[in-house]
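Dear colleague,

As promised, here are the two records you asked about, laid out in our usual form so they can be pasted straight into your sheet.

NAME FIELD: protein one
SEQUENCE, THEN STRUCTURE:
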Amino acid sequence: MLMIIVVAASLLMLAGAYSLFASLYWSRSGNYPKNWKKLFFYSLLAGLLLGLASWLGMFWMLLPYPNIAGEGWFAGFPYMAVYIDASGYHYHFNFTQASVIANAAFWFLLPMASLHVYGRYWHRQQKKPT
């Protein structure tokens, strides 16, 4: 189940990154919806706030993970960065710093992924014959 979450989050990050680059391209070509600049600004602002919140609040995003030794928690979503066991010990991994950065990038790009869906819909509506 954890692998499915990581793969889905990675695909959403790719969609958000594609939308960010496509938005910058559309702003040069002038081929974008009328309210695109406002939506782009608000999605960047929401992404900055979400990315900062995920960076600073990683330990408030605890996911329960039961194992043989008892209840444990993973900190960070969707990329698990730290494991906390039942007695409260923190286990850092080799990829902890990369996971924290990936979480911030995911939450920054998530609003751009929704903007990507809107942009694709708008372009399909423009191509339909009337």
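NAME FIELD: protein two
SEQUENCE, THEN STRUCTURE:
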Amino acid sequence: MIKNYFYLIVGLLCILFAVTHTLNGTVTVLPVLENVEIESSIKTTFTYVWHIIGVENLILGIALLVMAFHKNLTKVKFAARVIIAILTLRWITIATFTIINDSNWAKLLITDTIAISVIIVLLFLGTKVKNKISDGELK
């Protein structure tokens, strides 16, 4: 039985983001590396760093799906807060390097900002869900 719909929704979104991030990289971003003169080690590094993000999203999604069904929500609340911190720091990193390196930074940050903000808000709301005890009262 689902104990936390917020975690369920965010888990599904993270899995979706893992797939779309990986596909976007494979189809549009990573092929560009083949058209430029850079060392193969740099291409390799860029490729695995790109895929690390996809794998990280997949792992977070699976963890959140498990958390959505966990009987005791207070035991998984810490994990949700850690995920919020990871995503917040991920956005700060993305924003910082984008602002430093691209004059068109505002346009580039829109998609990531919306996606990460929605996830963080839903996770925060998920941390506010209370456990139900047997007589129907909230704990």
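A couple of things worth noting about protein two: The helical segments are 5-29, 40-68, 73-101, 105-127. The radius of gyration is 18 Å.

Best,
R.
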